[in-house]
Amino acid sequence: MGNYFRLKENNTDFKTEVIAGITTFLATMYIIVVNPAIISNTGMPFGGVLTATVLVCAFSSVMMGIYAKNPIVLAPGMGLNAFFTYSVVIGMGVKWEVALGAVFWSGIIFILLSVFNVRTSILKAIPKQIRYAVAAGIGFFITLIGFANAKFIVANPATIIGFGKIDAVTVTFIAGLFITSILVAKRFKGALISGIIITTVLAVPIGRLWGDATSLFGTAKLVSWKGLCAAPDFSLLFKMELVDSLSLSIWPVIFAFLFTDMFDSLSTFIGIAEAADLVDSEGEPRNVKQSLIVDSISTTISGLLGTSAGTSYIESATGIEEGGRTGLTAVVAGLLFLPFMFFSPVLSLVPSIATAPALVLVGVFMMKPIIKINWTKFDDAIPAFFALILIPATYSITQGIIWGFLSWTVIKIAVGKKNEVTPMLVAIDLFAVAALFV
């Protein structure tokens, strides 16, 4: 095992990789509950979506670890599940069986683009200044998600966003954040996973001693026991409509899935690789072709199993910060999903505010590439800044990278530096503009 994953070459060991895998799993496992909660609004059975979610997470992550040998976990994308539910099924009135078929066909296109190195060419066409900005922007995005999950930052009609309020939930989050920060500052091994466990314990009294407190999962109690076992529901397997999903009216949906998933996964992959220095001798993300093929397959099997498209997860950065550097991290995290087909109620013991401190601190870890941006060269700095700031501001990695691309192309051409705009980047720009109107 050590030789296969090249643990010594990556300056890691079995124990470190296992801890990193557990940490990534704990930061990502909220998707097991949240994804079904969103997609079940289409009329699909909650239990069936939960089973599909677990299988996609497990299979895709293990495949990423074994085949691509990268410490990156895959799961149904949060933005993609919202688009699937509220835009396609509810908004457009598309049957969920047809929507699953659209997910499947977008995955098939992903695979073709990946096998023939088109996605790799796209990756190499992204300017390095934009890559650095995307990495930092994802860091801000993760931090924003963490603060929002803890209700520390909330929507405010007057100021767009604002401070929540001091109550039992935010006090518990702040305590967990400070404890986790101290552990990280002391370079305590397993700091993030320890912080998650400690915050979970601190959250036990909430909703019991201090009245109603709504969590990310919409329950009155942040920590509650709902039993131990639940039989897996396989009712959604192979329920997609393959023929109807190829009708002309559905192609814009396939295109939207294709574009959003592709750039979400590309930008996430770039961000994690840059922040963790998971690059090859040429400065490109490690095993990029294999990783993108796995990402493509994850999307395809998502349609087969009964959920929205799978994609690389930014929360993988939590395990990488714990020292995970090889595919063994992804394998450990992936395998940890499987028991929750049977023990899903146990997830209620880990509320969103328990993983929130880890997400906030990951933003700190992912700021490293920001110093590589040439802030004194404005034709580099302006597009990079747009990409960096628009990822958290629009709550969309895709929007950040789209406007980073477009502004880079326009500014470079305007200042007479056409040589820094490749034909592939121009093609990406046209693709991006089309996606804005889908």
The shape, in one word, is globular
Q: Which percent range describes the beta-strand content?
A: under 5%
How many E-type strands?
A: 4
Q: What count of helical segments does DSSP give?
A: 18
Q: Please, could you describe this protein's structure?
A:
The protein is mainly alpha-helical. It has one domain (about 1-150, about 225-350, about 365-435). It is built from 18 helices and four strands. It has helices at about 1-5, 15-30, 30-40, 45-70, 80-90, 95-115, 120-125, 130-150, 170-185, 190-200, 250-275, 290-305, 315-320, 325-335, 350-365, 380-395, 395-415, 425-435, and strands spanning about 75, 155, 160-165, 310. The strands form two sheets. Strands 1-4 form a two-stranded antiparallel ribbon. A two-stranded antiparallel ribbon has the order 2-3. Strand 2 and strand 3 (about 160-165) form a beta hairpin. Helix 3 crosses helix 4 (about 45-70). The longest helix has 26 residues, at about 250-275. The chain is globular and about 60 Å long. The model is unreliable at about 210-220 (pLDDT under 50).
